[in-house]
Amino acid sequence: MQVVSYTDARNSLKSVLDSVVDNVDVTIITRRDADNAVVMSQDYFNSLMETVHLLKSPANVAHLKESIAQYRSGKTIPKGLIDED
Fold this sequence. Notes:
This protein is an alpha+beta fold. It folds into 2 domains: about 1-40, YefM-like fold (3-Layer(aba) Sandwich); about 40-75. It has 4 helices and 3 strands, in the order βααββαα. It has helices at about 5-10, 15-20, 40-55, 60-70, and strands at about 1-5, 25-30, 35-40. Strands 1-2-3 form a 3-stranded mixed beta sheet. It is elongated. The N and C termini lie far apart (about 40 Å).
């Protein structure tokens, strides 16, 4: 995570945007007289929103916990990918 001032972000906006996209990271922009802001790539944002959506459902959370427990206890069977032409 990178932290930059509003002035620095404004002066190097392209660099800030390139950094969040290329590094799949976030940048916090600090402001003196206002709340800070966060800049992130759309892919990273979409990933976070998908996770939030999936974790809203108690049934999805329970299924995920069960799957993780099965994986950790070695109750999974590895399978190869099927090539689709």
